[in-house]
Predict the structure.
Amino acid sequence: MRQAVLTEPYNVILRDVPPPRELKPNELLLKIHRVGVCGSDVHMYYGKHPFANTYPMIQGHEYGGEIVRVGSAVKDFSPGMKATARPHLVCGHCAPCLRGQYNVCQNLRVEGCAGPEGSAQEYFIIPEDRAVHIPDHMTYDQVAMIEPIAVGAHSTRRPGSLEGKNVVVTGAGTIGNLVAQFAVARGAKKVLITDLVDSKLDIARQCGIHETANTAKETLADAAKRVFGSDGFQVGFEAVGAQPALTDLIAGVENGGTVVIIGVYVRNPVVNMGFLGEHELNVLGSMMYRHEDYLEAVDWTAKGIIKTTPLISRHFPLEQYHDAYKFIEAHSDQAVKVMIDVA
Ligand SMILES: [Zn+2]
Ligand SMILES: [Zn+2]
């Protein structure tokens, strides 16, 4: 079978390897149809990921495929079904794992990132307990989006109920867009999404996020006043991973409000901790997702509550994996989600 390998920064090759090994009793063999290229994959391609820098790496933690074989003890899945799986490898015995917070396992590894290989290949083995069922009517593009959608599901649970609250999401790339869609779906009063690129704000509006601001042209403070009036906003989600977006959110959120950190910071940002203290702000981390987030991501996408089509910029076949990165590099401000068609 063929697989794409990131051998070192700026170099992806295709190679032929023997077919997958025999399945263990609890495993499924997926014929991969689609792999999504994630922002963190791009950080690895540039050699700039803050913690995932293992080469060579078969990337791919966002994927959809068809089950072609199941192990002898698998009960809930059978050949012909569509499926995907969480890419987490957790230890199961550290304190966070024991209290159910396995998304922050102290020994966490992620397939295709710092962990072992990912799904950028024709076949991929997944264990039943990390797999999720996918309704037949969902497209492989949708299935490959379940991973980032689950990030949206998880991060929007972190601050508690969003009902009746005004929300700002900084960054209208894939993650920011999906976070904002979840904030809308979870009953936020108004959701404002910001970006420096108009085309991403257009995509946000196509996904049902009506309030947008280009913060290259309008400050967040002005945009918030325009959209929320004197009500202000109570929750902010930082999905850029950059100092200015974080600074604006912390300065703008209502006293006593909450800022959730989702972006990956290539450079460590500076935060005025005195300001946090005086205004009693809550700053929350959000790390990936748990199984229930995957289940909700599948359910809400299947029902059409979460939209993915406007987010997909372009498809490349597996043989052109490297071209996909070159495309992303050349269109870094415009490209949102790039898909690799494996089958
Ligand atoms: Zn990802
Ligand atoms: Zn653990």
